[in-house]
User: What shape does this take?
Amino acid sequence: MINIFKIVSLLEGISYILLLFIAVPIKYMQNNPEYVKMLGMPHGLLFVLYIVLAIMLKYELEWKGKDFFMVCLLSILPFGTFFVGKYLKK
Assistant: This one.
């Protein structure tokens, strides 16, 4: 399950970066919300899947509260999910 979590964290990070640095600027600079609509739903689904998998792994791997908090914090920071794999190796 940890490998699936790493894949989801990578995909969630990519979708977040695309949304934040491509879709949102296009929405406000060119007054075109289509990219936000197109990328928003997949990002939202990946984010929910990321959190659900993190909760499942918390109990499976018996993470401490600090570890779970860090994994959740990394999900809201741009580029944060790219470091989840490295953080989990510690």
The helical segments are 2-29, 34-60, 65-76, 84-89.
